[in-house]
Specification:
By secondary structure, this protein is mainly alpha-helical. It contains five helices and four strands, in the order E-E-E-E-H-H-H-H-H. Strands 1-2 form a two-stranded antiparallel sheet. A two-stranded antiparallel ribbon has the order 3-4. The chain starts with a strand and ends with a helix.
Amino acid sequence: MESRCAICGNRTEDMDLATVEFEGVSVKACPYCRKQLSQFLQDPARNAEWLSGVLRVDEKHTRTPEATAALTRLAYQNDIARPAPANAETPPAKPAVTATKNAEPLEERVDKLEKQLKSLKRRLLISKILEIVVPLVLVLVLLVILLRSGALQSIFDYYSSLEDLANQM
């Protein structure tokens, strides 16, 4: 059966939840929140963004009021501003024109990188084919040269004479 983490509200297996105590509150938290909370308690300035994000996330109101109060106390003790609730008025969004201006150079870069990737794949395929074909052709050419020159015949004659000597013994 799945339960929810008392800090972040995410679904977690019951066996993964463990009790963690902070600010006089004992809650069951997932491994990630336990790790982040311990890191926050060790170095609040470095991990302030995590606490701010956790306070902002409780949209489904899965966190208990005691846990929320304890997290808020931690934020105030470390001078971390509590984020505005999700349903509060947000500043007007920037026009979409700036987004398209920023997207055009990125799309050009993506197209350029796709072309480079395509040519790289083609070169890789060619090199793999050549790795197999070139040695095979060289072996065949050497074999033909040895057969035409008669050098292989003298080698075969030598081994047959050795075989005859071995059979005589």
